[in-house]
């Protein structure tokens, strides 16, 4: 049987805990804010560089082709430009919404989960689909130039497996988030 | 000092200790807890740019802090243990601790195993808030808050109140 009265009073036990208080100063906060901004800038830069590499790679191959053979690299370049534009437009993900202090937690979490679910449901549309025209054009170009062979079937197969795999994984993760959203929505009402 | 800085300093002076306890309730790992607390402080400082007095400073601070910490748990949960609801945790066996440190450890572990919304309710209740304030902060319906608070009291009585434990 405990002798300490606080052991019978969890509120008292919790509020009077002797946890070493972590001191966070305004300078700490400002320096963390600056680090956060730098991280976002570096991440954006990495994405732009990756886009530039794809564009440079296909751009460098343009001189080797003529006529309809130019279609695949041009379509890949167009796809990469579109993806980089979308990344730029969608901006700095991960920062806290400005209205975090006005929204009750349930509403806040539902909106955050909805945002993540919508991102999962649409990401393949702007991240993978833009490369599909280039891929189709490349398969057709190779089939016309060299005929349908095992290498071409393998190439097309791998691309399609990755494409469908990413799409299915995203869909499955989105459905999981959807279930969490439904559970939270039930808490908004008097159903228990 | 700007108004934003001034509000932040006031919030830290009044609720800094409570924010430390909140971080303890949301994160078991010491290093990560410091990260979480810094993230809460950063979000709080930023949020004061848009503070217009529509709610009290306390409500604002707790909303921002719990919203950030809840998102943190959702983000980190893949690496952590399986989280349970208040109903599930109530059915688990109760260990016996005779000293204050162990009891606090067990209370903390119990909180850290709960799902974010249940965790928020128990943390707000432990901070001394009533059902109305908990409802305002969480957005849960009145009936839901009442049910959860009742479960919390039963759970904590079973875990920390010897008299009630023996009476069961």
Description:
- The complex is a heterodimer of chains A (192) and B (168).
- Chain A is an all-alpha fold.
- Chain A has 2 domains: 25-95; 96-192.
- Helices cover 72% and strands 0% of the residues of chain A.
- Chain A has 6 helices and no strands.
- Chain A has helices at 10-15, 26-60, 71-90, 105-127, 132-146, 150-188.
- In chain A, helix 2 packs antiparallel against helix 3 (71-90) and helix 3 runs antiparallel to helix 5 (132-146).
- The model of chain A has no long low-confidence stretch (mean pLDDT 84).
- With 168 residues, chain B is mostly helical.
- Chain B has 2 domains: 1-80, Orthogonal Bundle (Rna Polymerase Sigma Factor, Chain: A), CATH 1.10.1740; 82-168, no CATH class.
- Helices cover 74% and strands 0% of the residues of chain B.
- Chain B contains 9 helices and no strands.
- Chain B has helices spanning 3-26, 30-47, 57-76, 86-90, 100-112, 116-126, 131-138, 142-160, 162-167.
- In chain B, helix 2 crosses helix 3.
- Chain B starts with a helix and ends with a helix.
- Mean pLDDT of chain B is 84; it is low at 163-168.
- Chains A and B meet through helix 1, helix 2, helix 4 and helix 6 of A and helix 1, helix 2, helix 3, helix 5 and helix 6 of B.
Q: Residue ranges of chain B: pLDDT <50 for 5 or more in a row?
A: 163-168
Please give the number of β-strands of chain A.
0
- Mean pLDDT value of chain B: 84
Distance between the termini of chain B: 57 Å
Total strand segments of chain B: 0
What is the H/E string of chain A?
HHHHHH
Radius of gyration of chain B: 17 Å
Q: What class would the helix/strand composition of chain A place it in?
A: mainly alpha
Outline of chain A, from the CA principal axes? Answer: elongated
Q: What percent of residues of chain A are in strands?
A: under 5%
Shape field of chain B: globular
Mean of the pLDDT scores of chain A? 84
Overall tally of structural domains of chain B: 2
- Count of folded domains of chain A: 2
